[in-house]
Amino acid sequence: MSHPVDPQTPAISLLILDCPHCATKTAWQGNAHRPFCSARCKLIDLGAWATEGYSIPVDDPHFAQPDEHENDV
Ligand SMILES: [Zn+2]
User: Measuring CA to CA, which residue among 15, 37, 23 is closest to residue 6?
Assistant: First the structure.
């Protein structure tokens, strides 16, 4: 729809970054979803992070408790 880069914005304050999710060139200025290009990429990326967190049993007591006899490695 509208181009994210404002041609009247001074180059010194015009920061362009790649969306961490889809690598789209995105203007930092005025971007409510930065560093993502859009709310969609933001939600997808955060959703993937949350899902990944759930898949890793970091709170599993079988892994969380170290062997007391080998605790001074
Ligand atoms: Zn994106």
Answer: 15
